[in-house]
Amino acid sequence: METKLLRIAEFAKSDPKMKFTSLTHLLNEQSLIQCHHELPNKKATGVNGTTKEQYSENLKENIEDLVNRLKSKSYRPVPVRRMYIPKLNSDKKRPLGIPEHEDKVVQKGITKILNTIYENNFLDCSFGFRPNRNCHDALKILNYYIEKRSVNYIVDVDIKGFFDNVDHTWMMEFCKVE
User: Which residue among 26, 29, 129, 137 has the highest number of C-beta atoms inside a 10 angstrom radius?
Assistant: First the structure.
């Protein structure tokens, strides 16, 4: 899958307006087994309680079945298990959705494909949820801008309940590449 993703990245970079219409073939047995192995061990389980270790016991059969369901368009993700974790320095709690292991495998595969296509479109100063970038990298670049460049203002924003309230129709339209 890596070679195919590199090719897709080249196409996306050479023609930012290119529309990719058929990428599900990349979610094959080999790529999904790789995604399974890349997922961390001993993470919280979804509603069915399936661990990575349990899924591994019949990995080949599980992945074959998953690929068949993806190809026949009968794959349906399981509803996430909702948990609430405490917010730092607050009495409030943050909702957290924990997917089933198999759904995490599919999400990882799709994430790889989408990152390949869209990563070239992001600015270097963008850090949120991007591969190989973290909070420390963001702080380093912020420090550089403050020390080395002319800064007139800094804005720190936390939009309350953004993902719960954003218009998803608008969001999907906004994400379209034309």
Answer: 26
